[in-house]
Every structure is written in structure tokens, then in C-alpha cells.
């Protein structure tokens, strides 16, 4: 069932007010900004579904469970909060799954990794089953503004149950349907082929990745995981892997230098790949020991890796001290997360033609503020990437580093339309500006959103009028909803998780409520169950009921976790299990009408 989002009166009123009050200013801005363009380097959060083949064939293609290790390393490499991760384990059916879970703390990550460690294997394989479910999880739970992705760990081979009633042709058709749906919804699929036995179906995985706009990788060694996962992150975080050192353990602490190049580093992820557990210590640039873990550094470990995450580290040379088992090979890599963006100064909005010269100037900014310290630019090199939109030809123009800016000039080679993107890069990361379109065929420059000044003004006017109409429609709908009644009844049982005892069913008629009510009211306002105040019900269409969960309580339907944060529609006969966080009790609900 799709989640249902409801607008409250304040949302509607704010939308209408903004539409009215911003109209003059918006039109004025369109008339004065020309081709101004900034690319926000504070990247959007990720909504990622990690999809793992857990069939018996993986005992040969992935005997060391690199897929599990890669999934855990992926989670550890994420920022300490902000992203969301779901997990699907499949054979020829869904073995286990977890809906998109918010990363809010180390405990969030630990819970996901424990879930991955507990995955078991089954006898058969059908990729279409896993792909379809991963797409459904994103479609049901992905948040607007977040970047969705699927990461598939598999050997690419199907092994269907001969008694299951599905042919290979049918499985292929269902897989293609899932891939087409992922492409349509904008869900890139990154595939990691696990190839310990040399029987990888690399082409099948490559096709899934290429059709959805993702990338395909192959590995048979844990040593390759940091590079593969960082390549997946690169499209999102715009970072590069920095090889730091390879050492051989000798049973003693060995010093490894970690350079933090500037103050714009938000996180430094130090991955330590080894077949045996290692011990680590940290010394900051001032020579002071830093506890691991602490508020300056976190430590995550697994059977094939350790990951040290420096949080807002001080600029300079840090010392990582690593103690490994004698003769154990230890590879150390570094991945940064920067709070930097690359912005392009406005290009004059006018008609261009062949032979005209366009001055290019881009600059780095942190949290919206232009950098003023040239040392923060460091050894970055920049180029202007040019795409001829009429014939798809590409070219590059080298740019000069001038203090904290990158400058140069682009000479229009023909009377065509061109897309301009500045890319600045150094060893550990890169940044790109949003594309700017220059029209040399009789038009003007635009930022990819403006085809021409007067056209833009008309577009804004139409959009604002539409917003006003939509706002009024939602206002009327809200007023109707506010006084709408309920039908049916709710059957409630309360289970004590400490004793296993369950209360007698209580039947609560809903016809006495108008507009909305919360679960706490149904539970007769019991003080110990106060957290249920944030679980709210509103009327749905066709005598249905909508539940919205703003509490920390987990909600399951038929054993599967659901995301009711934006509303989830219930029909007659639906049963929910609500696990309370503040007390060891579980609420069992059944809606009847």
C-alpha cells in the first residue's frame, strides 16, 4: 500500500502566502540574475537499498561473504547522520528485508549491520524477485529531495526451482520490468559482481547497471571493496579514494601519516583492510593522543576491515598507529567528505555568435561562503567541459588558478548551443558546477532553467497562478477533512514483552471522533503509553483509515516494517503491530468497518 501524505492547514496557508508575496521579487530576480548559477556542494541525503543474493550458489561465488562485508562497509562510510538505508536479502523469494531506516547515530548503523550479519542462505536464485522488491521499497519510502539508489551484490546467475512454476523466460521478463521501472523512476542500480569461483554472469549485471544509469563492478577480494564503494559514492559525494599506505603487520604499532588538507573536511574515512583484527591509535597534528572512539573519531570493525572516521578533523598531519598480526597484509585508504561547493559567476545574458569570447570564472565556497584563503584551494586544477548540444561533440578548456578562483575564456567555435560545466579536482575530491547553456544560434545564455528572459517571466507567472489554485484547492479540501467523521471500529490488544501476557481484546468505536484522533485516546490516556500521542489517525477514502507515525515506535504490517511517517492507508481487516520504545509493550491493532 502506498504511503499517503496529508497537508495540514499551516502548510497550505504558507504555500499560498509565499506564492503571493514572492511573485514581484521572483520576477525581478529573473530579470536581473541572468545566468547566475551555484551548485550546492552539501549533497542531498541518500536513500539506498542494499540488495544481496543469499542463495546457496553464493557459497561458491562469495564464500567469504564479501557481499555482507561490502554492505556493512557501505553503511560505515555514510555520514554519521542524514542518510537512509534499506536491506533486501533474496533467493527465489524475499528471505528478509528492512525498510528504509534513518541513520541518526552509531546505534542506527549497528542495528543495520547486525541485521546483515544475521542473514542466512537458501537453495534457489531469482534476481527479478530481489530487484522488484528493492524498487518497491524505494517507491514506497523514498523522500523527495533525497538521492535514491540500489546497490546489488550478486553473481548474476539465476537458479530457479523446477517445481516453482516459473520459467527462465518469465523470470527474465520480470527482471526487465523491474529494471525498466527503476529507470523510469530515476533509481540507478550499482552492481557488484562477486566472482570467487569464476562463474560470474558479468554481462547480466552490467546490463542492469547501464540501463538504469548506474555502474558495474567485479570483485573477488576484500581489498577491492574501498575502491568499489568509493566509486559508487563518487557520483554522490564527488570524492576520490586516496591510497595511503600498505604495511605488513609485525605485532607492533606502526605509524601511518594521514594528511587533512584543509579546514573544509567534514569527515575523513580511513578504511583499514586486513584479514585479522587490528588495533588503532590516533595522534592529532599537535601531537596529542585522541581516544578512539570519542567525539573526534569513531571506530567500526568487521571481520575484513576497520574504519576510523575523523569528525571535523583539524587541518594538518595526523598519525594513525596500526598494530596488526605478524605478516598480515594491511591496506589503508582515505576518503574525505567535504563541505565545499563549486559555483560559477554569472555569464552575461545576451545573444552570442561564432567567434565571441565568454569569460569564465568559478570559485569554491563552504556553507554558502566564498573561500578567501588560497591555501584551501591547494593543488586543485580546473577545466571547462564544453558539450556542443547540436552534435554532442565535447571539448575541454584549461582554466587558471587565480587565488581562490578558476578563470579562463571560451571562444564560441560555431553558431550552435553549448553546455558549460566547470570541474575542479585534486587528489582526494572533485567538484562540478551545474550546467549553463549558452545559445549562440540567436538566443542567449541561460542557467539550464531559463530559455529566455520574457519566457521565464511567463513561466513563473503561470507557476505562481497554479500554486495559488492548488493552495486554494488544498485549503477547501482541508476544511472538509477537518470535520470529516470516521466509520468502523478498532480492536486493540496490549502485549507485555517481559511476561508475554496479552490483554483481552478491546473494541473501540470510531464514530465518536471527527477530523482526527490519536492512539493515546483509544488507550484511555494511559500515562505509561504517552508516546502513542504521536500516532495519529485521519479518515481515508472509501471508508479507509490513515495512520501517521511521528513517534519512534516501529510499525509492522504482516511482519513487514512500514513507513507511516507520511501516512499509511488501512483497509478493513488490516492488522498492525506497534512496538513501543519507552516501555516494553507492543500494541496489536485491527481495523474493522
Topology (elements, then pairings):
Elements lengths: L8 H24 L4 E2 L7 E8 L4 H4 L4 H12 L6 E7 L3 E9 L3 H12 L9 H15 L5 E8 L13 H18 L3 E6 L7 H11 L3 E4 L5 H13 L4 E7 L4 E8 L4 E9 L5 E5 L5 E2 L6 E5 L3 E7 L4 E8 L5 E10 L1 E5 L12 E10 L2 E2 L10 E8 L5 E9 L2 E7 L5 E9 L4 E3 L3 E4 L5 E2 L6 H30 L6 E8 L9 E4 L7 E2 H4 L12 E5 L5 E5 L4 E4 L2 E2 L6 E3 L4 E5 L5 E8 L1
Parallel strand pairs: 2-3, 2-5, 5-6, 6-7
Antiparallel strand pairs: 1-17, 3-4, 8-16, 9-15, 10-14, 10-16, 11-12, 11-15, 13-14, 17-18, 18-19, 18-22, 20-21, 20-23, 21-22, 23-24, 23-25, 25-26, 27-28, 27-36, 29-30, 30-31, 31-34, 32-33, 32-35, 35-36
Helix pairs in contact: 1-9, 3-4, 5-6
Keywords:
alpha+beta; 11-stranded antiparallel β-sheet; 6-stranded mixed β-sheet; 36 strands; 24% helix; globular; disordered N terminus
Please give a structural write-up.
By secondary structure, this protein is of the alpha+beta class. Helix content is 24%, strand content 35%. It is built from 10 helices and 36 strands. The strands form 6 sheets. Strands 1, 17, 18, 19, 20, 21, 22, 23, 24, 25 and 26 form an 11-stranded antiparallel sheet that branches. The protein has a 6-stranded mixed sheet with strand order 4-3-2-5-6-7, sandwiched between helices. Strands 28-27-36-35-32-33 form a 6-stranded antiparallel sheet, with no helix packed on it. A hairpin with a 5-residue loop joins strand 35 (575-579) and strand 36.
Amino acid at each position: 500500500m502506498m504511503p499517503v501524505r496529508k497537508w495540514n492547514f499551516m502548510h497550505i496557508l504558507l504555500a499560498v502566502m509565499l506564492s503571493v508575496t514572492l511573485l514581484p521579487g521572483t520576477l525581478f530576480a529573473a530579470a536581473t540574475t541572468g545566468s547566475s548559477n551555484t551548485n550546492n556542494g552539501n549533497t542531498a541525503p541518500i536513500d539506498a537499498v542494499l540488495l544481496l543474493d543469499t542463495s546457496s550458489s553464493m557459497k561458491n561465488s562469495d564464500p567469504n561473504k564479501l557481499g555482507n562485508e561490502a554492505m556493512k562497509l557501505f553503511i560505515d562510510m555514510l555520514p554519521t547522520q542524514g542518510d537512509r538505508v534499506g536491506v533486501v536479502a533474496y533467493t527465489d523469494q524475499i528471505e528478509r528485508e528492512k525498510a528504509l531506516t534513518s541513520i541518526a547515530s552509531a546505534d542506527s548503523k549497528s542495528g543495520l549491520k547486525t541485521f546483515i550479519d544475521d542473514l542466512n542462505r537458501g537453495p534457489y536464485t531469482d534476481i527479478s524477485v530481489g530487484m522488484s522488491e528493492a524498487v518497491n521499497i524505494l517507491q514506497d519510502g523514498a523522500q523527495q529531495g533525497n538521492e535514491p539508489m540500489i546497490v546489488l551484490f550478486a553473481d548474476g546467475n539465476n537458479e530457479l526451482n523446477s517445481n516453482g512454476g516459473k520459467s527462465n523466460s518469465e523470470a527474465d521478463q520480470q527482471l526487465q520490468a523491474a529494471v525498466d521501472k527503476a529507470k523510469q523512476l530515476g533509481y540507478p542500480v550499482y552492481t557488484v559482481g562477486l566472482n570467487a569461483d569464476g562463474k560470474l554472469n558479468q554481462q547480466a549485471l552490467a546490463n542492469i547497471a547501464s540501463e538504469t544509469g548506474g555502474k558495474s563492478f567485479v570483485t573477488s577480494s576484500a581489498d577491492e571493496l574501498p575502491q568499489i564503494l568509493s566509486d559508487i559514492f563518487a557520483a554522490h559525494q564527488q570524492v576520490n579514494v586516496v591510497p595511503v599506505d600498505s604495511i605488513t603487520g609485525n605485532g607492533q604499532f606502526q605509524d601511518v601519516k594521514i594528511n587533512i588538507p584543509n579546514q573544509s573536511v567534514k569527515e575523513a574515512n580511513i578504511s583499514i583492510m586486513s584479514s585479522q583484527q587490528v588495533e588503532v591509535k590516533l595522534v592529532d597534528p599537535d601531537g596529542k593522543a585522541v581516544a578512539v572512539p570519542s567525539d573526534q573519531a569513531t571506530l567500526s570493525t568487521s571481520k575484513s576491515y576497520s574504519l576510523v572516521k575523523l569528525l571535523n578533523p583539524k587541518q594538518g598531519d595526523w598519525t594513525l598507529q596500526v598494530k596488526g598480526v605478524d605478516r598480515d597484509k594491511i591496506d589503508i585508504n582515505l576518503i574525505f567528505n567535504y563541505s565545499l561547493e563549486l559555483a560559477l559567476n554569472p555569464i552575461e545574458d545576451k545573444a552570442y555568435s561564432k567567434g565571441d569570447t565568454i569569460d569564465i570564472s568559478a570559485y569554491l565556497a563552504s556553507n554558502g561562503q566564498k573561500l578567501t584563503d588560497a591555501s584551501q584551494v591547494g593543488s586543485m586544477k580546473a577545466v571547462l567541459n564544453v558539450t556542443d548540444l547540436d552534435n554532442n561533440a565535447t571539448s575541454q578548456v584549461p582554466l587558471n588558478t587565480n587565488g581562490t578562483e578558476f578563470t579562463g575564456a571560451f571562444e564560441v567555435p560555431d553558431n550552435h548551443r553549448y553546455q558549460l560545466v566547470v570541474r575542479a579536482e585534486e587528489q582526494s575530491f572533485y567538484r562540478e558546477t551545474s550546467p549553463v547553456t549558452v545559445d549562440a544560434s540567436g538566443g542567449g545564455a541561460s542557467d539550464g532553467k531559463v530559455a529566455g528572459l520574457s519566457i521565464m517571466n511567463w513561466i513563473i507567472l503561470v507557476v505562481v497562478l497554479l500554486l495559488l489554485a492548488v493552495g486554494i484547492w488544498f485549503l477547501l479540501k482541508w476544511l472538509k477533512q477537518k470535520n470529516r467523521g470516521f466509520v468502523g471500529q478498532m480492536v486493540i490488544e496490549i502485549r507485555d514483552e517481559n511476561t508475554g501476557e496479552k490483554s483481552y481484546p478491546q473494541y473501540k468505536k470510531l464514530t465518536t471522533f471527527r477530523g482526527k484522533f490519536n492512539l493515546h485516546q483509544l488507550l484511555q490516556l494511559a500515562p505509561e503509553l504517552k508516546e502513542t500521542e504521536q500516532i495519529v489517525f485521519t479518515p481515508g477514502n472509501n471508508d479507509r483509515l490513515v495512520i501517521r507515525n511521528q513517534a519512534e515506535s516501529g510499525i509492522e504490517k504482516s511482519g513487514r516494517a512500514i513507513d507511516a511517517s507520511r501516512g499509511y492507508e488501512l483497509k478493513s481487516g488490516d492488522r498492525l503491530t506497534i512496538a513501543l520504545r519507552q516501555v516494553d509493550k507492543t500494541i496489536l491493532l485491527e481495523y474493522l468497518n
